[in-house]
Design brief:
The chain is mainly beta. 10% of the residues lie in helices and 45% in strands. The strands form two sheets. It has a five-stranded antiparallel sheet with strand order 6-5-4-3-7, with no helix packed on it.
Length: 84
């Protein structure tokens, strides 16, 4: 597993760092409600949970929805995040 990656400005990113989500690449098969939830992550500031072997930095965001609390996780490429 990779321990670091970079953000859109070339800054080194590691687990526990805080980043602003600049963009996401949602799955085309998401229904409208799930797509809205994922797109709502753009602009959010999140902690890096892990960095995978491909260098994607994974973040998580908790939501209060109609069915209770929902966890959304997404892997970000360097151009999709900025260290804060």
């Amino acid at each position: 597993m990779t321990t670091t990656t970079i953000d859109c400005k070339g800054q080194i990113i590691a687990m526990g760092d805080r980043v602003r989500v600049l963009d996401i690449t949602p799955d085309r098969d998401l229904d409208e409600e799930d797509l809205d939830m994922f797109m709502g992550m753009v602009g959010a500031v999140c902690d890096i949970e892990r960095i995978d072997a491909d260098g994607a930095a994974w973040v998580a965001l908790w939501w209060n929805g109609d069915e209770g609390t929902v966890l959304t996780q997404i892997g970000l490429a360097p151009g999709q995040m900025e260290k804060v």
